Amino acid sequence: SPVCHLAHRYVVLHPVTFSSPKEYTLHRLLRAVDYNTLYTKIQPEQCANPRESMLPLSELHHHYRHHPQILDQTKNIIESCHFEFDFAAPKNKQTYTGSRYSDKLLLTDLAMEGLERRYGKHHTAAKRRVQRELDIIDNMNFSAYFLITWDIIRYSLSRGFHHVGRGSGANSIVSYLLRITDVCPLELDLYFERFLNPSRSVPPDFDIDWSWKDRDAILNYTFKRFGSERTAFVGTIGLFKHRSIMRELGKTLGLPKEELDELSAKQIEDHPPDRLVKAIHTYGMMLSQFPNQRSLHSCGILIAEKPITYYTALDMPPKGFQTAQMDMYMCEDIGFEKLDILSQRGIGHINDAVQLIEKNKGVKVDIHKLEAIKNNPDCNTQLATGQTIGCFYIESPAMRGLLRRLKCNNYKTLVAASSVIRPGVAKSGMMREYIFRHNHPSSFQYQHPIFEEQLSETYGIMVYQEDVIKIAHYFAGLDLADADILRRAMSGKKRLQQKMEAIKERFFANCQRKGYCDELSEEVYRQIESFAGYSFCKAHSASYSVESYQSLYLKVNHPLEFMVAVMNNFGGFYRTEVYVHEARMAGGIICNPCVNRGAYLSSLDGQEIIIGFIHIRSLPKALAEQIVAERRRNGRYTSLENFVSRTRIGIEALQTLIFVSAFQFLRQTKNELILQARMLFGRSKLDQQAKLFSPPIKSFKLPPLQRHPFEDAFDEIELLGFMIKTSPFDLLQTSFRGDVFVKDLHRYHRRSVRMLGYLISVKDVPTANGHMHFGTWIDVQGHYFDTTHFPPCLKRYPFTGAGCYLIKGKVIVDFEFPSIEVEKMAKLPMIPDPRYSSDDHKVAAQLPTASDNHPGLLGRKPYPSNEEVKERFGR
Predict the structure, then answer these.
(1) For labelling, which of 61, 70, 190, 330 has a CA lying 20 to 30 Å from the CA of 401?
(2) DSSP 669-720
(3) Model pTM?
């Protein structure tokens, strides 16, 4: 044979893909999933060979009985193969300057510069804390990690970007001095060891938020600054679970969509006993927890000492940043610490508001002067009264209610409130207890002396992750290693659940040795367990509170600029309509989109807020930007024909702009403009043909075209999603506006009232007895109120969509915060849409007469009672 001279290099080649015929069938099913085809249509060449399973040694010897040297050569290669991986050594970039010593010197210099900037030259406690942290950072070889983060922050500040450093990194005074965070650890007595200490089982990472508009610029800088070879996104690996298993296997076996939906929605025990369904169950059990698809982590970045390809292969997803083919757990296991670069729209509010204030008022706001912001009396007054709509993290109905119950008028109370509102504290029943103890600090007893000793700041209640760790350590005698596992399990680390069971056993065994009664031990552990996945560390709450205060400061002192910024970032708790309402209540004059004044985003001109084209449904972004660009190049539009000829707009988009009153400056009715538009397009097709000269057009006079007063309101609902000049209450068929208004609710404790409210949000909360809802409303005077709907009432009187409702219920004033426990509720009918009504005079006769004296969007003076409506809910 011509290749006999290579016989000494031959080895056995036999791929191994599956271990049994059953696994081969699963392999074929997966190939069908990959090809998105039926199992029966998979061709042999699309699958592995059926013999690709591990052969017994005796069978190998039989196959190669005439060439035993090949077996010997294969065995020698296998025995000579050896692979070791150092899982203990850190894989992150080891130095920033090129040597650990230089890193230490640079970090020390930067910290001392920050120390003078933040605390002055003679702050002994701060200086002592800085030196202790620097020693730990150097000993644990974390100087480079701090400097890399500082480098990114320095770039961010040079671009004028606002950021928020949060999480346990805010426990470090060095990170505060490097401007990574804006939380002073001395002010809140935050422990650095919560972030970095030799006994931590897993190294920490920094979590830093930027505006959603600025994040890509930060990512671009990071990848370029530290090299694409050594920088990558952390990957994620999606697993096959119940829904994906049912859908993918069912689809390959030919089940119709209706059956797939049913199988996905129901548990296995509720599935029909069908032959195909049983096959799906059989192979689904084998497929459970198999890798399904790869993606990228939402924020985790790896910056490695060696090229990333030393550790993993890379993907290049559509986002455009290379991504490691391993998830955060694998990264953690092999010695990587990720840097979390996140984005949120709350920071976008702050950025845009600061820029708009400078543009509109010529005032430069330094949002980082935190002492002045936190001690601003107007901010604290508004905080205590829950007037925080639009402000990051503190605008939800639940949070506003908590602020009012706590009378929260300072930064430290807000830090606690930011964690108290989390489901863990609420689930344990301790949120209610915290509110009571905060309002009556001398009217309670601590569960145990250790609670008083360790948790006096939070009235003996576990509020932060650190509190849980303290109780586990000092009360139950768990060591710090177990406490760290407990903390990480509370943060949702599912892989630690098995260890949690062992820790639970030690917890109760230790409590028994200490002589605690079973009732006390079980109650304390119940409170600890309720925190799983839902608690904040204190530094994280403090970071959120800083951003909340910054938002609140802007709202209090520059409300119109702030509300416009909130509207333009689309990141608040509520829909845009509510923020438009807030702006009007603050004195803003809301104007329709305008082709001569407006922009793609909403804009501010003095007190006038011009709604942006972005809010117009179905209007293309490219067209909106073209309208603005053409106006800036060649001046204002002078007529409908002039606008059409300059923008190349189509008839549908032109009609949309007419219906949202974008041509009000022409002082013609919408009906007249629509008729003109159709005559223009029908005559000359101006949207398709360019003209060098515009010949004069013979003028003509249109007949009078009547328009109903409320047609504009229905146009705005359809095209904007909210009304600009009209109140929702004006469109009701009744003139009844309620017996009681929000400003008087506190006087009706435990009394039944009838109110009229415009629905702005509903929260669904599952309970043991069914679902209950919490509603948030605006009354006719423009003020907010809240309702509680228990399951029996909700079943009889459910929510039936957006609109105005008549509500009867009992007022409950809880720590000076009034809400209504609903007994009856009904949505009130609106007038017929006058655009489609053939009997306009009847519609007009049904309209209530309204007064426009109140500044709010929904603000109208109370109307006379309507006896017919009152009768619906009785006297």
Answers:
(1) 190
(2) -HHHHHHHHHHHHHHH-TTT---SS--------PPP----TTHHHHHHHHHT
(3) 0.84
